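Lecture notes, unit on protein representations.

Consider one protein chain, 120 amino acids long.
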Amino acid sequence: MPTTVLIVDDHAGFRRSARELLESEGFEVVGEAAGGEEAIRVAGRFGPDVVLLDVGLPDIDGFEVARRLVAGQDPPCVVMVSSREGEDFGSLVAECGACGFVAKSELSRESIESFRARRR
């Protein structure tokens, strides 16, 4: 079974390019969301293995969304993304319960799988 992914980002262009990249690398994108509240609803509906979650969302901070997602039963591996570098966020990524962080420009199958492997 392919790894299922939910893409959460307020920029439609990034969601589209991330979907194309991930699907071409064998992932199954089960949904997309443009904001935090929508992400929580969609994740609850589809139960993705991975949530690719932008740090900056228009309604709820991505770190808070991650906290809520990982607090549930059988939580997804949350991978935080941003156009900024991970060092800009200090310890926030670890503190929110995310599996890790990847810069948008470095998104790849290998980066997502490495976070999932560390989580197991």
